Amino acid sequence: MYDHVDFDFTECFDEDCGVYESPSTLETAQNRAAQTNNQATGAGLAAANSSQPSAQPAGFPAPAGQHQHPEPPPITSQPPPIAEPPPITSQPPPTPQNTTTNPTNTSQNQQPIEPQNSELGREHAGQRVTVLDLAAAGINPTKIFELHSLRDYTDSLIQLMTSIPDDEKVVLVGHSLGGLSIALVTEMFPQKIDVAVFLTAFMPDSRHTPSFIFDQFMASMPSAEEYWLDAEFKSSDDPNDTITSFLFGPRFMSKLYKLSPPEELAMTLKRPSSMFLEDLSRPESKLSEEKYGSVRRVYVMCDEDEAIPPAFQSWVIKNDEVKEVRMLKHADHMPMFCMPKQLCYCLLEIALKHYAANSDDSPTSDPN
């Protein structure tokens, strides 16, 4: 039994992380959701493993010793057609104490997020949030080449999860590259996580090493040069360091923020980041079905995302057989900027649904 609902909102590319708890107001939740991204630099997509800055980046090289995997469908400008149920009504979700909810939906039943009532869920909103800057992100003073693994990068979130009492749980939310960080933390603390929400994110599976998802992403890309545009890639000056950093240029950033207010892009703090491909291709980095696979997962799609296109989002969902899928319509890669109210509504509904299911101690045969 829980005394509150937590969100851990992980946005991992010069971005913030946070945890939403204890209800107050919808406006508070929206403001907090926006604050988690004030330092964001871009989509945080994987960097090409090149040794020097390049105006024509190549795709990721396949990790050594890794077998070829089936390629996902080529990325298209439109998501594959998926049947949708009727839109969400204007009524706020019922209180957790009075609700028994089936915690899963099939991927064919994506729920469009269309809030119609400004009073929606006021008594449920305003979850307590702890905002974090991951290593070498936001105002965190660490330099990117001081990091050697995804675990180093995710250290502040790991420390937060360590501090949470064993009888409490959080809702992790990872955006874009943040999907890798919340997957790592889910593997480490499955008993403390109510549900993991992947917001137009890279979501690894438990059958391959995490680098597999990036191999498939690059394989689905018709042209690396057209995709990366003016992004720059650079290796460490230390010959013993395998980290490759990337920095997005103005053209690539404009693609990420296509539908977002231009002032949000202007305020963005740009810092180099990395995908830690060497670390993620190691056999020991593979996630387990017993831990990572035991936690419920929800995927939130953005149908006008040009950084992680909807066709690839759909492939990620199918690859890991995620059964609960939501759709943010008319959203680019940065829904926290282009439609913060709809995103807030979506996250609140997910949290309350899974909170109610767990408060009722309803058993489920499938964690997803």
From TrEMBL:
Residues 71-96 have a biased composition (Pro residues). GO terms for biological process: jasmonic acid metabolic process; salicylic acid metabolic process. GO terms for molecular function: methyl indole-3-acetate esterase activity; methyl jasmonate esterase activity; methyl salicylate esterase activity. The keyword Hydrolase applies. Gene3D superfamilies: alpha/beta hydrolase. Residues 125-337 form the AB hydrolase-1 domain. It comes from the Eukaryota. Residues 28-67, 97-113 have a biased composition (Low complexity). InterPro entries: AB_hydrolase_1, AB_hydrolase_fold, MES/HNL. Keywords: Hydrolase. Residues 24-116 are annotated as: Disordered. PANTHER family: METHYLESTERASE 1, METHYLESTERASE FAMILY MEMBER. This is AB hydrolase-1 domain-containing protein. It comes from Chenopodium quinoa (Quinoa).
